[in-house]
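Hey, can you fold this one?
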Amino acid sequence: MKRYCFSNKYKGLCGLFLLALASCQQMPQVKKPDDGKRWLAGDHHVHTHYSVKWDSSVFPPAPIIGGDAKYSIPLNAQMAAHYGLSWMVITDHGGPNRAKLALEQAYPELLASRKALPHILQFYGMEFDVPGNSPGGRHASFIMPYSATEAQQLYQIEHRYNGRQGVPPGPEKAEDAFMLLALKAMDALPDKPLLLANHPSRLATGFRQYHKITPQQLRDWQDTAPDVVIGMTGAEGHQAATLNPDGSIDASAIRAEYPHYPTMGGYDQMTARLGGVWDSLLSEGRRWWVTGVSDSHGHYTDGWADFWPGQYAKTYVYAEKDYQSIFAALKAGNMFVTTGDLIDALYVDVVVKNTDKKATLGETLLVSAEDELVLRVRFSDPDSPNGGGFKPQVQRVDVIQGVISGPVQNRSSDEAPDTKVTKRFYAGDWQTKHGYSEFELVLGKVSQSGYLRLRGTNNKDELEPEADARGENPWHDLWFYSNPVFIQLRTAGQ
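Sure. Predicted structure:
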């Protein structure tokens, strides 16, 4: 039997996996262990040892297992569960003939891991190499819905459309237009996948100086396949890049490995800048969601730049614990993202006063000009210490509102000037009941359609997330972001 351990410190976990694998033929697949929905944490960007490097001294190039990421699928899953995740997505890199490797080696290992560790739901996917000029750095999480033909459907897309597939890749893959063909093919699959742009501003040359992935491309992608392209990562991976293997700080290192312009509170500038790219997309009425990931290749204690899946960033979806419900919640935007376990539950309702009409994250509330609206918020802090060994406290929650003004004329637009912080709530402004912190805000009547989203932090003095300095300790600068609630003003005939 193949052994899946790569470091002595994880031999105990490896042994647990081997015991489970030995009995996996008798272990039934758990589809719906829960009757109702609850907040379930996950990570849609996890690399395994099938993120390979390639030996180009032979032809065709041969894969070097473990070349670009260290751990097996089951070890990643075991650690994800250890850090409180209920679901994860395997998203390995592509390459000259990675499609064949994935189908013949990675996918069977995933099936074995699912059987051995059914308490952590493991989706099949890949980090799609976006076609276009200089594809390096242009990546997206490609997530397949759980099905009997998931592997064959992903193979079909990767083999034909992935930007690095081929020896060498065809010249058509150097064109941005080829990405639109790939999206049309994804949209035509029997089981439509989801696609989220990864680290969209990692190669930005400066503040608002986007490179490789631009606001126009994000719009083009979603317009081509609106049921597939749903958003982007906000809380980026490689957050342990400033930590030495012993946990001390490397003062010269860059948080999240953003080389030219840094993250802002650990979040990509496309998400973190108030009235920026994200708000520009939302102000068009786009259903555009943000998430948080580990982008885990190898743990910082092994000399890499990453935390384990779930150790630092989490994406929470409100769902039943089954593949279909979690996938649907991702697509619907009923989710929030947090770093450092700042919170573990967030209930956001926009309510029409004196009625039972309301909407929550990802939903739309249809209202009339006479309706009085109220925002009701509840959130909770985890009971146990986070992955850094302490319990952070939310010091402030910002209520952010924007106006929906329709499609932009300039598809490169990265600003929504009408977006603003409506109200800042501090720890003394909310009440604690039954383990939840609660507050309300009277929104009143609305004169035009808009949206509302929340942002919170453990730093009450930093009113807007600032650019992260070299050597910053990621555990000291924590934020959460909700996805939006849309408020649509009823027009004649509605």
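Residues 1-34 have pLDDT under 50 and may be disordered. Let me know if you want another pass with a different chain boundary.
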